[in-house]
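Re: weekly structure request thread

Next one in the queue (563 aa):
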Amino acid sequence: MNRKKTSLPFILTALSILFASGIVQAQTTLVTVDLNQRTGEMKPVWAWFGYDEPNYTYMENGKKLLTEMSRFSYVPVNVRTHNLMTSGDGTPALKWGSSNMYTEDAQGNPVYYWHIVDSIFDTYIERGMRPLVQIGFMPEALSTHPTPYQHSWKPGARYDEIYTGWAYPPKDYDKWRELVYQWALHCKERYGEREASSWFWEVWNEPDGYLRGSFEEYCKLYDYAVDGLLKALPDARVGGPHTTGPGGKRGREYLIGFLEHCIRGTNYATGATGSPLHYIGFHAKGGPRIIDDRVRMNVGTQLRDVERGFATVASFPELKHLPIIIGEFDPDGCAACSDDYSPQNAYRNGTLFSSTIAASFARLYPLAQKYGVNLEGAVTWSFEFEGQPWFAGFRDLYTNGVAKPVLNAYRMYGLMGGDLVDAHSSGMVSTDSICKNSVRGQADIGVLASRKEQESAIMLWNYHDDDITDVPPACITLDVKGLRSPQVLVTHYRIDENHSNAYTVWKEMGSPQQPTPEQVKKLERSGELQTYVSPAWVKVTDGKISMSLELPRQGVSLIKIDW
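Done, posted below.
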């Protein structure tokens, strides 16, 4: 992490003890944190990532990004990818990938090939990461409609063009079950039973859209796959259905129907009542739009999906205890749709993306507490795209090996953990209000705070749905109590237009598409998480410290306190 040196006046402004009331103006936001008041565990629900194109995993920038993720996360990162079973030669394309794990000989006998999928999983395991193993999509030799098989979708094309032969049910369910059994058995032999059983496994992705078949066909697909998986790995954790958002009628009804099937339905593979289910997955997406020539986010829609999903799970007493994985938790629906064809996606290069991540992930904790459910993780569907222009407007964390501002939001979350503690902001919009109305009136000047044995981390953000940054910054007074040391070391990290922001630096360079090696090095440094001011020791009085700072619109700060 790069620490910028700043002059003493800035240190005094941002970090020193403040008792002079003249510094606090009428519109100052008061943020209070009580480190003695634990409110729950701060699960690292953010340490989950995913992408469509699995073959990017073992490419240079893919390995570089995965290494970075493994370093800033204090727990093993879980990685979810599509197309692990898709037929092809391993050449990636947008919204495409392949492993060619299953073909058939001239007599129709199965031929298994594990090299490509092993290259993907090996890359994760070498970094202490875990795959969230997606059992999908359908190999060409098993598809009921094998041709055309590989799509040729590009940004700007109709999304429905992606649904080709890979999206259909199997023509032979026994061969489908055997394929899953052989794959799981291979993972058991290659990585060890304990390791492979520690992963989460899932069957398909968004069957209410990504499967060209009926609801009953999905349940049959699920039952046969799970039967094969558990014969090889009896202790594996498998779930689904990873449907689209429960905020919509289709996604909610599909989720309910699937849960009913797992509890009371007839298992298509075994004839027994019900089907094994060890976790529940669904997706949650926002919906940005262009309003008056600017981007307007809709984090309310995204969180409404979460709330209704939690409520649905909570309505099943038999399942309420199960882990929930929000398999895709994103501000919009298409990572590979660039802003050239979808101008509402222009938020992705700058700080609107990072502030959205800060504000939305923080709301998952109170929503899970509200419904008494067991949230395990929320997958950010963002990775990196090979061979694309610099800052092309894709929903990614890297551009040509350089971190975008949004990655620094996850680096900040990586500095948190332990217990959540009591934290309030006078400028924070309530979670209930955001679920109903998003953030369209006052800005959401919010706070999330955690505590470990000898450190605390306080995240602050100044978020609004509208991409308007030419407004006065928020003046924040932060009061922290519950400190039991005579002095503490305060470090202030910041994401804004001028900190932790390679996009600003790239534009200042003239937006080069072929930057020099020196420019690339500068971009890499500017993409690191930076301190706003130099770390400073602060005296504790009566167990308290107080500090003031200004936080610009769409800015995010992390105040780390060590003692």
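The chain is about 30% helix and 25% strand. The first helix runs from residue 8 to 14.
Next request, please.
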